[in-house]
Fold:
Amino acid sequence: MSVIQLEDVVKRYDSGAETIEALKAVDFRAERGEMVVVTGPSGSGKSTMLNLIGLLDTPTAGTVRLDGRNVTDFDEDERTEERRSQLGFVFQDFHLLPMLTAAENVELPSMWDTDVDRRDRAVDLLGRVGLSDRLTHTPDELSGGQKQRVAIARSLINEPDILLADEPTGNLDQETGGTVLDEIARLKAAENIAVVAITHDEQLVQYADRVVRLVDGVVQ
Amino acid sequence: MAWRNLGRNRVRTALAMLGVVIGVMAIASLGMAGVALEHQATSNLGDLTNEVSVSPGEDIETDGVTDDQVETIRDVAPATTVIPQKTNGTELTARNGESAYVQVTGVTNAAPLYDIAAGDEPTRLETGALISESTAQTLDLEMGDPVEYEGQIYRIRGFIAAESGFGPSGGGELVLPVSALREQEYYDSVTVVTEDGDTATATANTIEEHFNDEDDEILSVTSFASVQENISSFTDTLELALLGIGSISLFVASVAILNVMLMSTIERRGEIGVLRAVGVRRGEVLRMILTEAAFLGGVGGVFGAVGSLAVGLVLFHVITGDAALALAWSSSRYLLYGVVFALVASVLSGIYPAWKAANESPVEALRG
Structure:
């Protein structure tokens, strides 16, 4: 069973007089242990698709399934719980909180839980992305590549089934991007998780198990 | 985390906190000032609270309180000391050429009415005179010196201590045997000395009910206990007004907190979007921002309370002469009120920004 499935998904935005159809009857699926890269020009609907997969947004029509469960009509609180337990996010701008250390940033999603071993897990994850010696550094003391690796560690703190990456190498140079992608590919295999990444970056395409091209809201 | 968020813009946080400090100081200091004033006003009344003063009322037929009426007062107010007095005024001239205007009081049982600084404390004044210390000094009079009133000579047998605040002896006073004012048939006033303030109020009511009805006021009855109550009620009103003024400052401070929290959540819109995206619940975002607001209020409140305590110590020292009274619960409670008020006001101010941040769509928030 696919861990993520979009069936005939449509997303329309009303902006005053005109209606923009960002996604037009999109079908998409991803399996565990698979890295799917979604490419396409700007405005093709990549981010919209990632938001729908990430349960940050709801489709206008169609069905979204997680592990076979229909989550299309989940309300905001239910979607939050799904994100908390099933999904990990990596953003182009890293989005680390500047006043927290690397380890605290990794703990962030579970910071409100009364989970005593979350610090151990954060330390372990930072070790796995090669940042054992940067635990107490704040983001402004880290390089771009290190920040993105902290963000990857953060996305894995809840042991997700799906890792969603929005231009994960967009703000990194070629070499650092390569290191980060190696990391993602290794974790994908080790944790048996599905990775869905949207990108313009040809380098990322090389790491993909499958590439989906989106143009004008339609999967090519 | 809330604390570190506040630390991100220290100047803004410090200014918002300063607003709370000022607000709390305004509330607590003004509250304490009210208590200090009340304390001072009632301590000035001193022992007078156990006295009832009776004087001729508007509808009395005679030119003063009659002997019969004095006896009736003694009957209706047993277990009290009833002291009828006649009063007049005269000018005393001394051998050194100085003169002074004095109030002349004819009274038999003078001891309960006057603080005697030197000499006798007569309960039956039949000869001699008591005179105010200050007048005696002006006129260069000593113990045993003669004083003339209406052609009669009286020898000074005691000096009346200068009284502070309210009292029957405002300026200079000459106290003579009641026989000295025999030309006046009636008494000008009657003082009833009771055990305590409560008895004074009850006695005043009894006398009032006995002599007066709705239409006629034969005797005018005043108890100093009721004066004290009036002062208390006045200072309570004053305290409330002062607290009101103080609350305005705290209200302004809470608007500042609202502004700071709103700006801070707008600036951190993207971050809050990330929190929501990674599965942080709306309630948790709400809690985080309310905690920040509570920190602002709580820490500002504590600083404000410490400042107010210092102000309170100075106020009590200046107004009542005893700084330690500021620590008594009646005044120090305003410190607690200030802190609690600051906490409540800041949490209330945090609600809207927190609610706004927590309920924003994560997609919108992530766009920054």
Q: What stands out?
A: Chain A has a mean pLDDT of 90.
